[in-house]
Write a structure and sequence with these properties.
Length: 161
């Protein structure tokens, strides 16, 4: 009886492992969607926003293997426009911006049965962008900084890749 239970547990473990790997591959096959908020359930991918002053926010976005720099920057630009419009600012500027494409972590799984080791691991490449955005009530006349029009961004920037 114990031998049958052990064999059944091994079959279930292999089945659970295969299902887990399939789900992981399936979930990473598409770019991280725009409306994703960073959490445990999104594997640390998505947006995180924090208001740092009455007119300023820090916005970070982390995308998966399929989310490139251009798409990540579009997402952050659109999120900045949404926050500024909601707060009543028709213009905004980035006071700080950083975009990275990093190789991170190893996802691995393995099992041993009768001196055979089976395993798998991958290196993920995730793109992350962090900006500090400041809302502006008026377009400054002689500013050396790049000023964005909130309405224009909201009407012309798409979340499509």
């Amino acid at each position: 009886m114990n031998l049958m239970m052990k064999q059944l547990q091994q079959k279930l473990s292999v089945r659970e492992l295969v299902v887990g790997i399939f789900l992981a591959v399936f979930l990473t096959a598409c770019a991280t969607p725009y409306d994703t908020e960073k959490s445990f359930w999104t594997f640390g991918k998505g947006f995180e926003t924090m208001q740092i002053a009455a007119d300023s926010w820090q916005i970070s976005f982390v995308g998966n293997n399929s989310t490139d720099r251009a798409l990540t920057r579009k997402y952050v630009m659109l999120k900045s426009a949404e926050l500024c419009q909601k707060a009543g600012y028709p213009y905004f500027t980035f006071t700080n911006e950083q975009t990275n494409r990093d190789s991170v972590g190893h996802f691995g799984a393995g099992t041993t049965t009768s001196d055979i080791l089976w395993g798998s691991s991958t290196i993920d490449k995730e793109t992350s962008t962090v900006v500090e955005v400041t809302g502006l009530k008026k377009h400054p006349a002689n500013s050396g900084a790049r000023i964005y029009d909130t309405s224009y961004i909201l009407n012309h920037v798409s979340t499509e890749s």
